[in-house]
Design a protein that fits this description.
Helix content: 55-70%
Order of helices and strands: HHHHHHHEHHHHHE
Largest sheet: 2 strands, antiparallel
Strand order of the largest sheet: 1-2
CATH architecture: Up-down Bundle
Mean pLDDT: 86
CATH class: Mainly Alpha
Structural class: mainly alpha
Distance between the termini: 56 Å
Radius of gyration: 20 Å
CATH topology: Heme Oxygenase, Chain A
Strand content: under 5%
Bound molecules: protoporphyrin IX containing FE
Number of strands: 2
Shape: globular
Length: about 260
């Protein structure tokens, strides 16, 4: 009995009773897995381009561009659903379009990398479409679960995402901020202080116990969806690179089956 009570006390001490602490504890292992996907490891090493000749029939070409395409589809769904549900009691406290919205930044970056016809050149794998469908579904049926998705993406962008932005700038040799809008948050003066504010707002969301459990489960699912997107993008790039290697002129002969145009 005493042992059980201490164990419970330890659990509470580790994850606290605030949603922001519980969600961080619930997704800790998933965060480690996401950080260690092949795609994120390549990104951290600055390996974010593919030789142009290998991908000239394919647009977008490098890791950075294919990632931006998927992020565009994901943020379009996330932000349309947040906008539509902005007065829902679970969404209103964490609704910060001025400070956080990424859709326009992604549109600008994609135009920079892919040209004015970028909308016709956006390519995403099946996992990105599943992620998008999940966001649409919860936006329609369980808007309180959007908290989990907003947390996973926005707090990630304000944390490790800032490091990825610096790597992108250095690896692509970009001297201006062009092509880097996604990583920049002009409305957030201090990411550290903003994250504290955001956590406070998350903690103010009133949830029943079953809803709280569902939000924690959805945050784990959100990390898994990101991992699946990274794995699919990795496969997509490997297939393109292999096809190019096997062809005589460096031009892939067949479209990779995982590619889907949105
Ligand atoms: C927080 C690094 C990928 C979501 C953080 C923090 C770091 C970090 C240093 C701050 C931890 C703290 O303040 O205690 C990285 C690196 C990544 C990566 C280096 C990959 C190269 C991801 C991915 C996601 C993600 C793929 C989700 C899609 C988050 C979230 C937080 C966070 C939600 C906030 C945790 C909290 O304070 O509750 N990350 N991360 N990260 N990261 Fe990542």
């Amino acid at each position: 009995m005493e042992t059980q009570r201490s164990a419970r006390k330890n659990d509470t001490a580790e994850s606290g009773s605030d949603l922001s602490e519980q969600i961080k504890a619930a997704t800790k292992d998933n965060h480690v897995r996401a950080e260690n996907t092949q795609l994120m490891l390549s990104y951290q090493k600055g390996q974010i381009t593919l030789p142009q000749y290998k991908t000239r029939w394919y647009s977008p070409g490098g890791l950075c561009q294919v990632l931006l395409c998927s992020l565009y589809v994901i943020y379009r769904a996330l932000e349309e659903e947040l906008d539509r549900n902005c007065s829902h009691p679970a969404v209103a406290p964490i609704y910060f379009p001025q400070e956080l919205a990424r859709l326009e930044t992604l549109e600008r970056d994609l135009e920079h990398f892919l040209g004015s016809d970028w909308r016709d050149r956006v390519i995403v794998p099946a996992a990105t479409q599943r992620y998008e469908q999940r966001l649409r579904e919860i936006g329609r049926e369980n808007p309180e679960l959007l908290v989990a998705h907003a947390y996973t993406r926005y707090l990630g962008d304000l944390s490790g995402g800032q490091v990825l932005g610096k790597i992108t700038q250095k690896s692509l040799g970009l001297s201006s901020r062009e092509g880097l809008s996604f990583f920049s948050f002009p409305g957030v003066t201090s990411p550290h202080r903003f994250k504290q504010l955001y956590r406070g707002r998350m903690n103010s969301v009133e949830l029943t116990e079953p809803e709280r459990a569902a939000v924690l489960g959805e945050a784990v699912a959100a990390f898994e969806l990101n991992i699946q997107v990274f794995d699919d993008l990795q496969k997509m790039l490997s297939v393109v690179a292999e096809a190019a290697d096997q062809s005589e002129d460096g031009v892939p002969k067949a479209r990779a089956p995982v590619l889907q145009v949105t």
